[in-house]
């Protein structure tokens, strides 16, 4: 069966301004209609993998008790998952707006009041479901990334 490569983006045809990118289903290489090969960027893939677990990791920290955002940044950094406050604050706001987090203001001796985040009951339920999903994914990835042991063939002595 002769498969056509899947169009991935910018399908303007051969006369359009932008090249058409197609993924070769046999090699996973991305080619454009002007035959330039685009090599997959490992850093982009690594970044996407980290983004996929970011919310779960942040909720893992918050579910342990109320926390100040800069403490989340430090805990993530200590675990070698670097996050900028510019990424963290919008995520915390989204989680709060979804009813998963709440916060309280605490006066500070050295500056403005601080906002401490904690998980709501709904947030704890959500976190437990994410933890189950994480365990399933981690187990599946572990199983798939281990070498497959092939049983050795035993000779047939009844020949």
If you had to describe this structure to a student in words, what would you say it looks like?
- This protein is of the alpha+beta class and 159 residues long.
- The strands form two sheets. The chain has a four-stranded antiparallel β-sheet, with no helix packed on it. A two-stranded antiparallel ribbon has the order 5-6.
- Strand 2 and strand 3 form a beta hairpin.
- The longest helix is centred in the C-terminal third of the chain and has 25 residues.
- The radius of gyration is 24 Å and the shape is elongated.
Low-confidence stretches: 1-16
Q: What overall geometry do the principal axes of the alpha carbons give?
A: elongated
Please count the helical segments. Answer: 4
Strand content bin = 15-25%
Report the average pLDDT across residues. 82
Tell me how many strands there are.
6
Query: Helix/strand-derived class?
Result: alpha+beta
Strand order of the largest sheet: 1-2-3-4
Characterize the largest beta sheet: strand count, sense, and whether it forms a barrel: 4 strands, antiparallel
What's the quick description here?
The protein is of the alpha+beta class and 159 residues long. It has helices at residues 42-62, 69-78, 85-97, 121-145; strands at residues 6-9, 21-23, 30-32, 37-38, 101-106, 114-119.
Characteristic terms for this protein:
159 residues; alpha+beta; 4-stranded antiparallel β-sheet; two-stranded antiparallel sheet; 4 helices; elongated; disordered N terminus
């Amino acid at each position: 069966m002769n498969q056509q490569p899947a169009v991935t983006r910018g399908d303007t045809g051969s006369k359009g301004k932008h090249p058409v990118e197609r993924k070769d289903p046999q090699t996973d290489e991305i080619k454009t209609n002007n035959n330039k090969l685009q090599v997959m960027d490992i850093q982009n893939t690594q970044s996407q993998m980290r983004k996929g677990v970011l919310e779960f990791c942040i909720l893992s920290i918050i579910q342990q008790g109320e926390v100040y955002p800069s403490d989340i940044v430090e805990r993530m950094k200590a675990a070698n998952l670097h996050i900028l406050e510019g990424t963290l604050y919008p995520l915390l706001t989204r989680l709060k707006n979804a009813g998963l987090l709440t916060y309280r203001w605490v006066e500070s001796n050295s500056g403005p009041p601080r906002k401490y985040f904690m998980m709501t009951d709904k947030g704890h339920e959500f976190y437990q479901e994410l933890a189950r999903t994480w365990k399933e994914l981690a187990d599946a990835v572990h199983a798939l990334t281990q070498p497959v042991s092939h049983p050795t063939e035993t000779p047939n002595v009844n020949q």
